[in-house]
Structure formats: C-alpha cells, structure tokens
Specification:
By secondary structure, this protein is an alpha+beta fold. The protein has one domain (6-59). Helices cover 12% and strands 31% of the residues. The protein contains one helix and five strands. The chain has one helix spanning 41-48; strands spanning 6-10, 16-19, 25-28, 33-36, 52-54. The protein has a three-stranded antiparallel β-sheet with strand order 4-1-5, covered by helices on one side. Strand 2 and strand 3 form a beta hairpin. It is globular. The N and C termini lie far apart (24 Å). 12% of the residues are buried.
Length: 65
C-alpha cells in the first residue's frame, strides 16, 4: 500500500509537537522538515494555526538520479 505521508516544514517561531499513531509524540524545532499523514489531527491543527506548511514535491530534491 502506498504511503499517504506528505512533507511538512515548521514555519512558526516555536517548536511544535506532533502526535503520531502508536502513541509516539515528537517535538520539531522551527525550520525542521518531517513527513506525516495529512489526516493526522496534530498536523491539521498546526496547519490551521499557520505553524506548518506543506512542502511541495518541486521543493524536495530528487536524489534518485
């Protein structure tokens, strides 16, 4: 099954906390880039308050070549 994860960047001035399935909670500092499911409630909340932005595929370097 293909991964639904998308790439996000912390754009707020402060670190953010993201709850992941399985009870994992991670803290990401400002500027950090990470992958998460777009249906994750933490991601939805952080996008709504402008603490995250979705990184477009064009911005992600292609290391396969």
């Amino acid at each position: 099954m293909p991964s639904r994860d998308r790439t996000y960047q912390v754009v707020g001035k402060n670190a953010v906390t993201v709850d992941f399935p399985g009870g994992n909670t991670l803290n990401f500092p400002a500027g950090h880039v990470f992958k998460a499911d777009p249906a994750n409630p933490s991601v939805i909340r952080l996008l709504r308050i402008n603490s995250l932005r979705e990184v477009t595929p064009r911005e992600i370097p292609d290391f396969s070549s």
